[in-house]
Amino acid sequence: MRATFHCGFRRNASVREVPVDPAQLAPIDVRIIRALHENARSSMSKIASRLAMPESTVRHRLNRLVRLGIIEFAAIVNPLQLGYQIWAQFHVEVELARMRSVAQRLARAPQVYFVGIATGGYDVLVGAVFRTNKELLDFITGPMAKVPGIVGISTSSILEVVKRSMTFDLPEEAARGNGAPGRRNPGERRSRKRVAAAPIREVQRARPLSRNGSRERADRHRLVRIQR
Q1: How far apart are CA 184 and CA 195, in angstroms?
Q2: N- or C-end of the chain: fewer Cβ atoms within 10 A?
Q3: pTM given for the model
Q4: What are the residues whose beta carbons fall under 8 Å from the beta carbon of 12, sequence distance 6 or more?
Q5: Terminal C-alpha separation, the chain
Q6: In this structure, are strands 86-94 and 112-117 parallel, antiparallel, or unpaired?
Q7: Gap between the Cα atoms of 157 and 147, Å rounded
Q8: Structural domains of the chain, count
Q9: From CA 70, how far away is CA 62, in angstroms rounded?
Q10: 71-75, 88-92, 166-170: which range is least confident on average?
Q11: Would you state the torsion angle of the CA atoms of residues 161, 163, 167, 171, taken in this order, to the nearest 10 degrees?
Q12: What is the pLDDT of residues 54-81, one digit of tens each?
């Protein structure tokens, strides 16, 4: 299982697709992501121990990263080990009015692992894997031929995979902690308020009481109000 830095290639309805400002990544987030890059199977307790921070902090920050769609977790399978010896790239020319519908239709095919709308000489780029040349031919003459709006197809086959990775460089401004001025983590603001309130409660408890008890009643009322 790998930690993947989400860059908009994979459409997933469960995550937010609005681009995330790099300023929302704190240095602690970068450290957690890098730890997952090195070993995505690490438990939260191990990550917390390695980064010298509470496990609850790691869990909170990691859940936030997943909720924002910055990282995703997936079991990445090696197609070659499953007998998929042919990695094909399709450069598809389509009618402009049907560009999105063609891309969505091709994305439903189980052989397809990547679909993107592109600029340049071709409108849609498709990546797919096959076990044999016959499977490749059947896909071209079968499912692809039935998609309305396709004008032309250029096919190429990958002979050797030099690099296949789903990890990306993290924004340097996030690693350095250069976020927007004056912005803090909401949890940090709550934490500071609690710390600031503690001395006030101690001061109220330490006030001397008068003989007639009026100061005692006032102090009790003030202490209850502060505790609320």
Answers
A1: 16
A2: C
A3: 0.60
A4: 69, 72
A5: 46
A6: unpaired
A7: 21
A8: 3
A9: 10
A10: 166-170
A11: -140
A12: 999 999 999 999 998 888 888 878 888 8
In a domain, 163, yes or no: no
How far is the C-alpha of 210 from the C-alpha of 216, rounded, in Å?
7
Let me know the angle formed at the C-alpha of 147 by 146 and 153, rounded to the nearest 5 degrees: 100
Pinpoint the alpha helices (H) of the chain: 27-38, 44-51, 55-67, 99-107, 133-139, 172-176, 186-206, 214-227
Domain of 28 in residue numbering reads as: 2-76
CATH number at residue 102: 3.30.70.920
Q: pLDDT, tens digit, for every residue of 203-223?
A: 444 455 555 555 555 555 554
Contacts (Cβ under 8 Å, ≥6 apart) of 207: 215, 219
Strand, helix or coil for residue 143: helix
Of 30, 50, 76, which closes a domain? 76
